[in-house]
Amino acid sequence: MFFDTHCHLNSDDFANDEKGYLERAKAVGVDHFLVIGWDDVSSQKAVELAEKYPNVYAAVGFHPCDVLKVPEDRFAVIKRLLSHPKVVALGEIGLDYYWNKTEEEHELQRKYFVRQIELANRFNKPVVIHSRDAMAETLQILKENKPIAGGVMHCYSGPKEMVPDFLALGLYISLGGPVTFTNARVSKEVAKVVPLKSLMIETDAPYLAPTPNRGKKNESSYLPLIAAEIGSLRGLDAEDIGEWTTRNAKALFHVKP
Ligand SMILES: [Zn+2]
């Protein structure tokens, strides 16, 4: 049993193949899905998928690269969607200094990151956090604006030394396809040290497909490959990792067993 805590089934990459996507996943034991929005339109689509399929849940929010492109009034959509019973988190939100390089962009990203954490706190929802090339700034903002319903560091790419700082804030650490890459030394170290009770797994489909599908379009049916790699690094089975991470995801997102 596996819970894909971060996938973009709401992406155009999967248009008209949602059913097949979910069936292929279920055939290998992946039976829970959190579909993540990155702006108002994709968040709305995530909610539609959650309404249509059992065991599919939605997270709604503005990705740090998308906050820069959207007029202010479209944030109202997120606020409205947060009351939906299958919206279990606010995300993905955070900082991305890889794709956006100017100080002006960074400042806007920080402003909307804080504002979306405040919104999550008002609705008592956990947050799904994206952080790329901005790990120290992300930690700083989270310390100053603590997500009260918790959250998860999605596709964690920081060093193992920073893991305790995020755990201290009550956050989970989620690992994805990169942990399977042969050159992913840091990710593999992280996979060994995150306590099982704080670990989650995800595909981030359609991105970051795990080995041996690296470079292909990713999908939730590849999630057991990620669990198997983490398991082998820790002397456990893929199923053990699946059980722990599913339990953790259900606890954070308040999904009934
Ligand atoms: Zn994502």
Task: Give an overview in words.
With 257 residues, this protein is an alpha/beta fold. The chain has a single domain (2-252), classed as TIM Barrel (Alpha-Beta Barrel). The chain is globular. It has helices at residues 18-27, 40-52, 75-81, 103-123, 135-144, 163-168, 185-193, 223-234, 238-252, and strands spanning 2-7, 30-36, 56-60, 87-96, 127-132, 151-153, 171-175, 199-201. The protein has an eight-stranded parallel beta sheet with strand order 1-2-3-4-5-6-7-8. It starts with a strand and ends in a 5-residue tail after the last helix. The chain binds zinc ion. Zinc ion (ZN) is lined by residues 6, 8, 36, 92, 204.
What is the secondary structure topology, with strand pairs?
Elements: E1 2-7, H1 18-27, E2 30-36, H2 40-52, E3 56-60, H3 75-81, E4 87-96, H4 103-123, E5 127-132, H5 135-144, E6 151-153, H6 163-168, E7 171-175, H7 185-193, E8 199-201, H8 223-234, H9 238-252
Parallel strand pairs: 1-2, 2-3, 3-4, 4-5, 5-6, 6-7, 7-8
Helix pairs in contact: 2-3, 8-9
Zinc ion (ZN) binds next to loops.
Concise summary:
This protein is α/β, with parallel strands linked by helices and 257 residues long.
Give, in order, the helices and strands. EHEHEHEHEHEHEHEHH
CATH H level, superfamily name = Metal-dependent hydrolases
The CATH architecture term is Alpha-Beta Barrel
Distance between the termini: 12 Å
Q: In oligomeric terms, what are we looking at?
A: single chain
Overall SS class: alpha/beta
Low-confidence stretches: none
Mean pLDDT: 96
Strand content: 15-25%
